[in-house]
Design a protein that fits this description.
Layout lengths: L4 E2 L6 H4 L4 E2 L3 E6 L5 H14 L4 E5 L4 H10 L5 H5 L3 E5 L13 E2 L6 H15 L3 E5 L2 H4 L6 H14 L3 E7 L10 H6 L2 E10 L2 E11 L9 E6 L2 E4 L3 E5 L4 E5 L2 H16 L11
Parallel strand pairs: 3-8, 3-9, 4-5, 4-7, 5-6, 7-8
Antiparallel strand pairs: 1-2, 9-10, 10-11, 11-12, 13-14
Helix pairs in contact: 5-7
The chain binds adenosine-5'-triphosphate and magnesium ion.
The site of adenosine-5'-triphosphate (ATP) has 12 residues, from helix 2 and strand 11.
């Protein structure tokens, strides 16, 4: 049976996911510093806004002012959507302290996941959000790794329960192979990993879908670029990095055709979304 999918509209991403993210999934967006996680999250949200899907951004890493600025850096102006009540930033960064204008959605105890989920629930309800990005979940359990799974599950219940699809950004250090710890990796529905590798004095960006429940997905590493207009994934190419060499090849024709067809099908006959809301 066709699963309802949320199109990311990030160039190349829906192709490697055979149509998009299964609705209500919580996807871990994992990668080292500077790999493009925050940009991809913002692009996912803004692409939704442009098409009438409200979205919320939970800011744990950056000041809300910096978040708006980095949206703007790529030409994604969220202010209009914010005024219309279609976009919200949940400020889990300042703790409500500091000068300047106070945000509408503020988490005072930034490490209290229950307060965070209450504020987020309110924001999602107020704006009717369909998409959520939490940047980053790692911040929530950095000093208490034993809490990671519980933290993820609490957020997941609220977000998926309200019918949203989300990216949870997870920070890993350079050279680390995992995605953010076993408690987290099994609790989420999908894992997308972004990488930056140095070969011969040059950095190469790539993306790989490690898991995505309820759908087939590409099983190879794809080259990726960040441009002034955002992220672009070369879905019809795969990249092989060995540490000393880089090889980029065309994907087999059958794979390219299958991905193209899957996206077309979602475009022409989107599966009906599940309307019931649990919370
Ligand atoms: N206009 C642009 N053109 C090309 N690359 C850009 C542009 N703007 C930003 N970048 C690249 O994007 C990177 C930052 O991406 P992003 O903020 O998404 O990283 P991140 O994965 O969230 O990292 P961190 O874990 O440190 O927050 C920069 O280091 C830079 O390489
Ligand atoms: Mg970031």
């Amino acid at each position: 049976m066709a699963v309802p999918r949320v199109r990311t509209y990030v160039p190349g991403l829906d192709e490697i996911l055979y149509g998009g993210i299964p609705e209500r999934s919580i996807v871990l967006l994992s990668g080292g510093p500077g790999t493009g996680k925050s940009i991809l999250g913002k692009q996912f949200l803004f692409n939704g806004l442009k098409r009438g899907e409200a979205g919320a951004f939970v800011a744990l890493e950056e000041h809300p002012v910096a978040v708006r600025r980095s949206f703007r850096h790529f030409g994604w102006d969220v202010s209009q959507y914010e005024r219309e009540g279609k976009f919200a930033i949940v400020d889990a960064f300042t703790g409500g302290v500091g000068t300047g204008q106070r945000e509408k959605y503020v988490v005072k105890q930034v490490d209290d996941v229950h307060e965070l989920s209450d504020v987020l629930r309110q924001a999602i309800r107020d704006i009717g959000a369909r998409r959520v990005v939490v940047d980053s979940v790692s911040t929530l359990y950095l000093t208490k790794p034993a809490m990671a799974r519980g933290t993820i599950m609490t957020l997941k219940r609220v977000i998926a329960g309200l019918g949203c699809t989300a990216f949870f950004i997870s920070q890993v250090s350079v050279g680390e192979r995992g995605f953010g710890g076993p408690g987290v990796e099994h609790a989420v529905d999908g894992i997308i990993r972004l990488d930056l590798d140095e070969v011969d004095g040059k950095l190469y960006r790539s993306i790989i879908v490690w898991k995505m429940r309820d759908t087939r997905h590409s099983m190879v590493r794809h080259p990726m670029e960040i441009k002034d207009a955002g992220i672009e994934i070369y879905w019809d190419k795969y990249i092989r990095l060995t540490g000393t060499s880089v090889k980029i090849d065309d994907l087999p024709k059958e794979d390219v055709e299958a991905m193209k067809k899957a996206v077309q099908e979602v475009e022409e006959r989107p599966a009906k979304r599940i309307e019931e809301v649990e919370e």
